[in-house]
Amino acid sequence: MFYEPKDGHGLPHNPFNAIVTPRPIGWISSRSADGHDNLAPYSFFNAIAYVPPQVMFCSTGTKPDQDGTKDSVANIRETGVFAVNVVSYALRDAMNASSASLAAVDDEFAHAGLTKADCNTIPCSYVVDAPAVLECKLRQIIELDGEANRMVIGEVTGIHMRDDCLKDGVFDVTTFQPLARLGYRDYSVVKDLFALSRPDDNG
Hints:
Low-confidence stretches: none
Strand order of the largest sheet: 3-2-6-9-10-5-4
Strand content: 25-35%
Largest sheet: 7 strands, antiparallel
CATH class: Mainly Beta
Number of strands: 14
CATH superfamily: Electron Transport, Fmn-binding Protein, Chain A
Shape: globular
Mean pLDDT: 96
């Protein structure tokens, strides 16, 4: 099968998200200028640079109580900061609950039954039970083609790692089993690892 997106695919559901998989989930916490905390998952997310460490996520929709975007982007535009909370398998239901379309003044941490704490380097909350958290300072919001498509790029200013996830000096993802987004309503979980050495590795 071949199709051009501009002509449609003719399938019951859009296969694009099922093709580009698995995708890590950026569980983005932000705070509005007037102090309302927000938490929302984004599967258009990834790390994009080492030095300085940078991440990005993309928002692709709108809310009636925001000006042409969603709460996360609106808050980050106001305050210039956000945090990325890593989603473990144990937190899957809370992550899903935080995706509900709530009013901008409502707190998804409370809605999902999550404990939050203040970040160290930025004025923002994070998920205490997350295996890792990246505190970020906004670098760019890039307007993408299409309605309400925005890429948010942040520089990581602080990193939390749960002590139980560190094994012999390595951040061991098998201890918490990170969640990944697939297509449709499907998710996957990382349980098994294998290593490959690059051809130019020197030992």
